[in-house]
């Protein structure tokens, strides 16, 4: 297992001066820009003066370089995003595509809403990942980065999370297929594909859903965003499945790929 640690680096002003200078040159797409992680990532990229395309079925946050309102159909999403990126500058490619879409649902085989929950998870996690791959095939630069929305629970047998875990496992499988041979998979040469596999993110929604939970091991969204930007700047390992582990105020990113 490979480990990346991030925490004390925030206090190193020289590191962050150089870090922000590199970020300022980036041209990126954030899918799921209206969600908790997507909004935080867009804000972090904007603070670094990156050129940010944000896409979502809901209203994107203000201040984006280009906000893209997408329809619910996956085919329509891919076509809308590609058209928007090309309309702005047909010759310029994206340095990174961050798919921050996703959701969560509990349920077992006896749950009345099992199928509806599964459909929602497929749409938000798996279809969005296929859309991001489709966009990457024509809009990502050579050696660019594609980040997929996985989950630490994806390899698990979870009887009470049937709408969720199998879908996340499918996202992991898709990412591994793309990373195994990017050119054969239809991506640009030397593209990197990684999966973010969080345990629990510290979001307002999770705080509301679990008000009495111990949040000391929840990962702050800012730590996730800092790390994803570092991946886009070159630190990512193609095919990695990065699981953020938080303890004592510090977050470590462990590559759990077998």
Q: What proportion of the residues is helical, as a percent range?
A: 25-40%
Approximate strand percentage: 15-25%
Q: Could you give the order of the helices and strands?
A: EHEHEEHEHEHEEHEHEE
Q: What spatial form do the alpha-carbon principal axes imply?
A: globular
Number of helices: 7
Spans of at least 5 consecutive residues whose pLDDT stays below 50 are 5-21
Please summarize the sheet with the most strands: 9 strands, mixed
CA-CA gap between termini: 8 Å
Which secondary-structure class do the elements indicate? alpha/beta
Please report the total strand number as a whole number.
11
- The radius of gyration over CA amounts to 17 Å
Question: Looking across the biggest beta sheet, what order are the strands in?
Answer: 1-11-10-7-6-5-2-3-4
Residue-averaged pLDDT:
91
Please explain how this structure is put together.
This protein is α/β, with parallel strands linked by helices and 258 residues long. The chain has seven helices and eleven strands. Strands 1-11-10-7-6-5-2-3-4 form a nine-stranded mixed sheet, with helices on both faces. Helix 2 (36-47) links the parallel strand 2 and strand 3. Helix 2 (36-47) crosses helix 7 (221-235), helix 3 (74-88) runs parallel beside helix 4 (114-139) and helix 4 (114-139) runs parallel beside helix 5 (165-180). The longest helix has 26 residues, at 114-139. It is globular and about 50 Å long. The model is unreliable at 5-21 (pLDDT under 50).
């Amino acid at each position: 297992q490979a480990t990346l640690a991030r925490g004390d680096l925030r206090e190193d002003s020289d590191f962050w001066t150089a870090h922000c200078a590199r970020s300022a040159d980036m041209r990126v797409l954030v899918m799921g820009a209206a969600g908790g992680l997507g909004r935080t990532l867009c804000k972090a990229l904007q603070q670094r003066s990156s050129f940010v395309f944000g896409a979502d079925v809901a209203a994107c946050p203000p201040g984006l370089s280009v906000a893209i309102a997408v329809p619910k159909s996956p085919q329509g999403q891919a076509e809308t995003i590609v058209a928007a990126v090309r309309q702005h500058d047909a010759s310029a490619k994206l340095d990174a595509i961050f798919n921050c879409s996703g959701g969560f649902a509990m349920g077992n085989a006896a749950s009345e809403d099992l199928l509806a929950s599964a459909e929602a998870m497929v749409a938000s996690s798996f279809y969005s990942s296929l859309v991001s791959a489709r966009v990457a095939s024509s809009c990502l630069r050579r050696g660019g980065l594609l980040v997929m929305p996985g989950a630490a629970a994806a390899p698990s047998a979870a009887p009470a999370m049937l709408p969720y875990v199998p879908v996340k496992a499918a996202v992991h499988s898709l990412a591994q297929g793309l990373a195994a041979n990017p050119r054969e998979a239809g991506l640009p040469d030397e593209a990197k594909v990684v999966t973010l596999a969080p345990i629990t993110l510290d979001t307002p929604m999770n705080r509301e859903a679990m008000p009495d939970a111990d949040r000391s091991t929840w990962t702050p969204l800012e730590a996730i965003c800092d790390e994803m930007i570092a991946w886009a700047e070159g630190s990512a390992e193609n095919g990695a499945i990065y699981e953020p582990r938080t303890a004592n105020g510090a977050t470590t990113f462990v590559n759990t790929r077998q």
